[in-house]
Write a structure and sequence with these properties.
273 residues; alpha+beta; three-stranded antiparallel sheet; 11 helices; 21% strand; elongated
Length: 273
């Protein structure tokens, strides 16, 4: 049967599939749009099955914040190649999914959510058929607070969200600056209390081993190791790190310079790789 260009374009708009794939599906479906869409989705399932064991280490990491600035999410939409990751339609899909993710608390809930008539999981399979690469949601992090801000690093490889204790004048800029800090410096925790006990024990043992090799007396090791542990906290916990825009103060001190009662209450970071 004869398939018009307008029909092909309509199917392409609905599915995002290529012109030739859309025309082939419409011909096979004898002009039935629902059947053509189903054929394209089956193609996506087949491609997804064939590429299930592929590495999806590229992609786009996107943060989204709600209108009230009280909740935010950051997700990564992963693919196989940087070429696809930089594609405008791929980044738009990642952005749309991040906005949708604001309604949910887990990746599983997001995957089950409706996305223009199909689930997000089904949409990813559909786009796998369109693009020809494995596509999946990688990271998913959510954060709530009195005021939440975000930062997406150029190239969409890293994104962070940060919560502050209050919505005060300057909170928007402060939250973005602290989120930028978290993106650049990759802290392991918000503060000392958030560092895993096993990590602390390991750092103390490493410090003691180094001190023994330097010939320090055994009786002095505990006190010196505690000093080195404090340095570890300063380098690796967000609020104790030197503020990247002004090394004369810590991140905690920077936030207090915005408002004396303001503190950072949480952060989340998602990066590719």
């Amino acid at each position: 049967m004869s398939i018009t260009a307008a029909e092909v374009n309509k199917l392409r708009t609905i599915t995002g599939a290529g012109m030739m794939d859309c025309k082939k599906a419409l011909v096979e479906a004898e002009g039935n749009f629902d059947k053509a869409i189903e054929l394209l989705r089956k193609k996506g399932q087949k491609v997804a099955a064939n590429r299930a064991d592929r590495e999806s280490t590229e992609g786009a990491v996107i943060a989204a914040v709600n209108v009230d600035k009280t909740a935010a999410v950051v997700i990564s939409l992963n693919c196989e190649t940087d070429f696809v990751a930089k594609n405008e339609s791929f980044v738009k899909l990642a952005t749309d999914l991040a906005s949708l993710a604001l309604k949910f608390n887990t990746k599983e809930d997001l995957l089950a959510a409706d996305f223009n008539g199909i689930s997000v999981a089904e949409k990813l399979i559909e786009q796998t058929g369109v693009i020809g690469e494995k596509i999946e949601i990688g990271g998913f992090e959510r954060l709530e607070g009195a005021f939440v801000g975000s930062y997406i690093h150029a190239g969409n490889k890293i994104a962070t969200i940060v919560s502050l204790s209050a919505n005060v004048a300057g909170a928007e800029e402060a939250s973005r600056n602290v989120a930028m800090q978290a993106a650049a410096m990759n802290p392991i925790a918000l503060n000392e209390d958030g560092v895993d006990a096993e990590i602390i024990a390991k750092e103390i043992e490493i410090a003691k081993d180094v001190l023994r090799q330097e010939g320090k007396p055994e009786a002095m090791l505990d006190n010196i190791a505690k000093g080195k542990l404090n340095r570890f906290f300063k380098d690796n916990t967000l609020v104790n790190q030197d503020y990247i825009k002004d090394g004369s103060m810590s991140v905690a001190a920077y936030v207090k310079s915005v408002d004396a009662g303001l503190v950072v209450t949480g952060f989340r970071r998602v990066a590719l790789g």
